[in-house]
Structures are given as structure tokens and as C-alpha cells.
Specification:
Blueprint (H helix, E strand, L loop, with lengths): L1 E5 L3 E6 L2 E6 L8 H5 L7 E5 L10 H15 L4 E3 L5 E2 L10 H9 L6 E6 L4 E5 L3 H4 L4 H7 L2 E2 L14 E4 L2 E4 L8 H7 L20 H10 L5 H35 L3 E5 L3 H8 L2 E2 L1 H4 L6 H14 L3
Parallel strand pairs: 1-4, 4-5, 7-12, 12-13
Antiparallel strand pairs: 1-2, 2-3, 5-6, 7-8, 8-9, 10-11
Helix pairs in contact: 3-11, 6-7, 6-8, 7-8
């Protein structure tokens, strides 16, 4: 059995050999079926969130396309929905159910915890002792409930979280162009390594500290020699402060509502947010598969329900 998580930007597969992450930008026509061919011949459990990609006219169009692409390669695949059930055909419940699969897997052993899964694009905040209340939630409802925070470690436009920054004591409005991404800020601040910056940079350029500094300078319409390294780092730090505050507030809200006693973290931001918010990473519990938690979780839920090992 393999587990598959199909996002808008990444395809994540977990099998007996480990975690496999493929960059798969659906909005650019990524060949999903071709990327899945190496995994053909194995039973598969699937979750998705890529149906929201703007190449699809509606979520149902995206769901149908994804289901057909998977079934072209793996005809017997089953798809986990927000009703916590598995399906074999396109239905609305398949939209953005990856977070619920994670909760379904973890809720028995971590019922006293809030899960914070910070990926490249979004952060899921999940109270594991409220599973029945979580069923059926759409992404819109999750945004309203602060269970979904639309910011991540790599792909967030810096200008979406800061409208101005302080440079040498002067409030400086930012450009709303996509000049720099969260990956640039986190790379410069030492939160990720260059090899972790797996999505394309905003300018399709190099993913090095020097290139990240140049992109961050552009956020205030400057070249690097105009504001210097310190100025670009100031942009990075103020973006990170805003991002941390946004996610921390959502976690505090979830803890307050659920009465949970601890925080566990997963995803590319697991180590960072465990340090910052006083949590424990899932990697300490389940190993590297925590980097692709929904793919691993849907696999384990499917095996559990089938009575498999």
C-alpha cells in the first residue's frame, strides 16, 4: 500500500522505502499521471488539495481531473474525503481532505494535542480531540475557524503579510509585486537550508543567500546596494515576525477551544515552530514520514480499516 498526497504544488508519496516528494505545479500543467507511473501496480490511498489550483474552473473540475489522472495509472486507488470515508469516484467530499487524514491517523495516540503542520504553502492547525467536529469542513470554513492559515515556509509572497517595514527607523511601504517569497526570508534567517528551498524562486533565479537578499531588496523597490544586507535582512525579519504571530495566534486559539495540553509539529516548518512555540516534532515519533504526513496518514488509515499491517 502506498499513500499519495496531491497538492497544487507538490506530489508526495509514501511507500515502504520512504518519502518521495515531486514538484508538481498543477497550474502549469504538470504531468501528474507520468509522475505516478513509477508507483503503478501497488494499491494506493489518496488525499488531495490540488483541486483548488486556478487551472480548474471549479473544485469539482479539479477533483475529477485528479481522480482520472490517478486512476489512469492506479485503477484501484481509493480517495479519502472530508467525511472520513474512502471513495472510488469523484465526489465533493474529496476537496482538501489531506489535513483530516492526518487527524484521523493521529487522534488516537495524540488526543491531548494540537497538530501544527506547516508546509511550503499553508499551515494546518488541528485539534485532535475534536475529530467529529472537523468532519465536513471546507477550506473556507477552516479559514474562518483559524484551522487553516494560508502562509507557508516557501511559497508565500512576502507582501501578503507586511504592508510596510521599518528601514533605518523609517516606515517604508512595500511593493505588492511577487518579488520575494517566504523561502527567501527563511533561507536568510537560517530556518531552512538551500536544499529545502524546493519551489521556484519568484524570479526563477538561484536559491542562494545572495539571490534571496536581492529579491528581498526588491520588496521595497530597491537594489541591494541601496539598502544593503542589513536592510534586506530587516525585511526578512519583519516578515518572519508577522508570519510567526499569525500562526501562533491560530495555535493559541485552537489550544483554548480544545483544552489540549501540548503541541506537535510536522512539515517543513516542524523544527522551527516546535522551537518557537514550545512543541514537539512528529519526526521524533514517526521519523522522516512526518515531512509528508497526509500521505503517510492516509496510507495508515487505509491499512487500519482493511485490517492490514
Amino acid at each position: 500500500m502506498i499513500g499519495i498526497d496531491i497538492g497544487g504544488a507538490n506530489l508526495k508519496v509514501v511507500d515502504d522505502t520512504g518519502v518521495h516528494i515531486h514538484y508538481c505545479p498543477l497550474w502549469q500543467g504538470a504531468p501528474l499521471a507520468d509522475l505516478l507511473k513509477p508507483y503503478a501496480g501497488k494499491p494506493a490511498a489518496v488525499v488531495m488539495s490540488g483541486e483548488l489550483a486556478d487551472c480548474f474552473a471549479s473544485k469539482m473540475d479539479g477533483i475529477r481531473w485528479i481522480v482520472e489522472a490517478v486512476q489512469e495509472v492506479i485503477p484501484g486507488a481509493v480517495f479519502y474525503g472530508t467525511d472520513a470515508a474512502f471513495h472510488t469516484r469523484p465526489v465533493p467530499a474529496l476537496a482538501a481532505a489531506n489535513w483530516l487524514a492526518s487527524a484521523d491517523y493521529l487522534r488516537e495516540n495524540y488526543a491531548d494535542a494540537v497538530l501544527l503542520d506547516v508546509g511550503s504553502t499553508t499551515a494546518d492547525v488541528i485539534s485532535l480531540n475534536r475529530f467529529e467536529d472537523l468532519k465536513g469542513l471546507t477550506d473556507t470554513r477552516r479559514l474562518q475557524e483559524q484551522y487553516l492559515v494560508y502562509t507557508g515556509m516557501l511559497r508565500t509572497n512576502v507582501a501578503t503579510l507586511v504592508s510596510s517595514v521599518m528601514l533605518d527607523g523609517t516606515a517604508t511601504p512595500v511593493s505588492t509585486e511577487y518579488f520575494a517569497a517566504s523561502g527567501d526570508a527563511h533561507l536568510l534567517l537560517g530556518h531552512i537550508a538551500p536544499e529545502d528551498y524546493t519551489s521556484p524562486a519568484p524570479d526563477d533565479g538561484e536559491k542562494t543567500p545572495e539571490a534571496a537578499l536581492r529579491r528581498l531588496a526588491r520588496v521595497v523597490c530597491a537594489d541591494l546596494d541601496e539598502i544593503g544586507r542589513d536592510g534586506a535582512l530587516a525585511v526578512a525579519r519583519q516578515f518572519w515576525d508577522a508570519q510567526r504571530t499569525l500562526i501562533a495566534r491560530a495555535v493559541e486559539h485552537a489550544v483554548s477551544r480544545s483544552g489540549s495540553g501540548r503541541l506537535i509539529t510536522a512539515g517543513i516548518g516542524a523544527d522551527l515552530f516546535a522551537r518557537e512555540l514550545g512543541g514537539v516534532t512528529l519526526e521524533e515519533e514517526i521519523g522522516e514520514v512526518s515531512d509528508a504526513l497526509p500521505a503517510y496518514a492516509v496510507r495508515e488509515v487505509a491499512l487500519r480499516r482493511s485490517g492490514g499491517a
